[in-house]
């Protein structure tokens, strides 16, 4: 082979490789197939903060050296919320306390959350004798900023604590006491020095700042200046995470995009949505909400489709674990947003783990698990033909 | 396969093993090409240059590359990387006492490591004694890792991230070889400082033996006072190839301090098998390694850190043109393929009984051109498919790498 042929061969190889680049390099997944990514309309500065929060959430792994534990549930935020989606039973959170709302007397015994893992040489917690408990599957993070930006008055307008309209649905607010580091959102409503909880399975969390500080402390055993007490010694110790990191992470959670519905123009999906409305699911899983004024302009005054009312509902004896959280009684659960439901399998290892503790491995099983205020809708679902049930589930999977 | 069982049996039953340090390599003279070289010889099987009457010989290699990779459609753009600059210094202190050191600068000056710095004493033809910073002979890649010997820009994932190549420690040991016609038998055995608890306490979020490499103190003191044993037996036939079996094990955690018990002793055990051969007719070179890692992780710790890992790679290199090219008399053009796999966490979840995933598979087709045996210019396409611990849809990384590696 002469020099000319060799050089030509090399050039052709490089050219072919360059031309083939777009074909054989992995493409970006469709936006509607993933949950992560920022909302539209952020500034460059906000994108930087989002990226810092993304690193804090997904890449920062805590170890015994940088503060993990000594008792903990998980080593990073991302290990509970893969791809910002719903979690897996591997990182189920166990809350324990008591059955009534007189206060959690097990706080000095490690409550409210069980740290079921420990760094080497330490023993994890056990649920104290006499304590009621409940298991919580980690929720998706998707679109949390939109939920955070819903005005308190909107939530109050959806509540019907005494079922005044007689429809059998009596959503109510969980009024909670705020920790001192919380900044009230504009227009927040206060009653007897208590505020509306809107996050968490029992709506026991006011905003994403409280959620983040709590998760660092209770899930990973990481002390911050916001939650300065070590979950193991219960003593105040030096912060193990900086305020800036906590703020970056909160910003990340606020600005994660909302899930994008798939196949929304499919005839079955349209029919399924109508069935969803017809059998009363939308009385709690409110399809559309609107944000108010908000500190992040890109989230202000936006209409979005979360399928929740952010209120507590009595879900009947089947979902009564006997555990009370704040004012949320054992059978009461906050309506979980249904957006992103169809993508849950992609973060739960290929199968569904639904309802508060992941006991339902299909959407049908989750619907059948509804009791209490949702019993009528459940019964209506059971009366649907198999075809209609499938169509309704197809709609739910499109969310 | 029967042949390999026979080889292993022969190796184990061999009572007398002979070995001899080959001082020829330390002189500025041609190598004895008739002698069969094994992976354990790699540290001396390098080009050295001796200047005049200086008592030392010098050598080294350098490798640099360009790469363009995408992960799930997102790229960090065009990257130029200076991966390694490695310097060797060897000295024949006497006819039967040698010193060799290898100092490596990785990613510019981001990491500077003494990878090897040992003195070899030939006590008798049957027994050599080695002391200093030695490369633990686990698998084959750890000892035989010089960039110019490989057709691929990235080192094997299993060898560098599961086994912690390059993995060297301070210690002492013995080694030897015996030649019988077309066969050579070899052994190595060392006690060195070892791992520490970073293997299950690291920011990788998985059991990760290379985490212990960040403990620079291991060249000064053992983390827990328990030595790490590494042993290997290998056999090579001129026509069949080389087979190696190796083991590395010790205690990784600090189980006591100041006489107080902190924890029970927790072992890490690693087993590896390696093989290489050149098919006689096609001259196809096949080189592979597979390893198993077992770590005693506390039951009360997170399942994120695997108790068992396994993985390996196989390289297939086919020379397609072997003739003078562009003025290089011994030029060779190869096509090659690497297949590699690592299961970082072999087991099942306590909560569901479902499989713990956390695995990576990669294939790397390559074209390499060797203008001389000591220099390689490589074009690789890499495609990784990586599943997280839950087995969710995989992350895909793929792209092109182009670069060179050469001894100097």
UniProtKB/TrEMBL annotation, chain B:
The protein, known as: Porin
Q: Which SUPFAM superfamilies match?
A: Porins
Identify the stretch annotated as signal peptide in this record: 1-21
Q: Which domain of life is it from?
A: Bacteria
Q: What are the record keywords, sorted? A: Signal
Entry annotated with the keyword Signal: yes
Q: Does the keyword Signal apply?
A: yes
